[in-house]
């Protein structure tokens, strides 16, 4: 179907005399075009989430090594997203402030998708995952700020829900691709140490879709110039006191000491080496805080650390919600393949037909929850209008908890599709409503950097999950991957309770549609 032509947001030249208290409302098709790139971003993420554990195991990884190999994804996000947010806040080119990053990340992510399934050995696959995730993060982070830039507060839930819709729609096809290709006659098994053709062809298709979708958004949208964006800004100013250097140095030394103590305990006690990741994160934050306290000049590091210290109260409370939500999601992503293959298909051998059938079925399940997420994204704005942001999010993540918990009770893999209904509602909500709650409290000139900093509270739970889940499953649950779903269900229950502590911003007056 032909798309209506994209209408550009107002520019200072075109609309300077018509300034309003907040930005004009955009049309449905303007929101559609500005969010369409997320179809490609999630196509790449879905292929990664459903197939990377399979690739690692095929190349020889042991079960308890998988979380450590997955650590590439959250670590690259932790580093890349705040930097991209900081830079994009200060960028203005012929392509705008956010779109150059969309395009740059798309090029490198597409190339990484072509390389990943052709990795000859495990360390190359792990290194390619670093590149893939870094590139996707370069594209993804500005998309979150893009919604805050372009939309007035009342349309932001719809904007983030539209992103959730495209995330779900893209993931349906991406997650199903290996299964569909197998049913079309493409080889779903290969010689030991080789990736099946179903996975290879799926990744090749993902590279093309990712680049094309992001290119569509770049070509079909324009952005507000900085002066117009700031003129429409209705967020309350942030109260930022000068950095107390002595206090910051004491905190830095405490974080460095915690990191050193943790590393010592792990080494002396003979605990799982993956726990060194948490010690390293604590020490790295301490080092960044110490450098920020000692440098007099303002630069990227001091600005990001200062903004982290001065983040709004709503963001601090949302951090707890995000921690438990993303811990649950990461548990599912890491262990879905091994859990379903072992529990529902009866095989833990990556070379067996039963294991690969189970791995393909995980792709179907992931497609299902993303499909349900796309439908949930249509319902979420309606829920928000009637229940508010907080109660809508609580209901959705509790539906997700029920879905994850049911994996322990259901034995027929076909019935797991019903479990994915709840997971889909939780996924759509996690990708939209916390960002809507957050964006209303962020000023325009800090939208990018704070969206990047907000990613810390997505990354840290993933680092914790990657560090402790393998140890916890081995010590407490006999190394049964299915128990990761029980842990994830409990985490989503806590996330729903914590969102009730987050205040919602009062509605603001708005302009007419652009």
Characterise this structure:
It is a single chain. This protein is mainly α and 514 residues long. It folds into two domains: 24-232 and 310-499, MFS general substrate transporter like domains (Growth Hormone, Chain: A, Up-down Bundle), CATH 1.20.1250; 242-309. The protein is 71% helix and 0% strand. It is built from 20 helices and no strands. It has helices at residues 12-15, 28-35, 37-58, 66-69, 72-89, 99-115, 122-150, 156-183, 197-220, 226-231, 245-269, 276-294, 300-309, 313-344, 353-405, 416-430, 433-439, 447-454, 456-476, 483-499. The chain starts with 11 loop residues before the first helix and ends in a 15-residue tail after the last helix. Residues 1-20 and 508-514 have low confidence and may be disordered.
Quick description:
The protein is mainly α and 514 residues long.
Give the name of the CATH architecture of the largest domain: Up-down Bundle
**Count of separate DSSP helical elements:** 20
**Quaternary structure annotation:** single chain
Envelope shape: globular
What's the level 1 CATH class of the largest domain? Mainly Alpha
The CATH topology of the largest domain is Growth Hormone, Chain: A
CATH superfamily of the largest domain: MFS general substrate transporter like domains
Share of residues in helices: over 70%
Structure summary, number of beta strands: 0
Strand content: under 5%
Intertermini distance: 24 Å
Structural class: mainly alpha
The average pLDDT score comes to: 80
Cα-atom Rg, whole angstroms?
A: 22 Å
> What can be said about the biggest beta sheet?
none
Number of domains: 2
Low-confidence stretches: 1-20, 508-514
Q: What is the helix/strand order?
A: HHHHHHHHHHHHHHHHHHHH
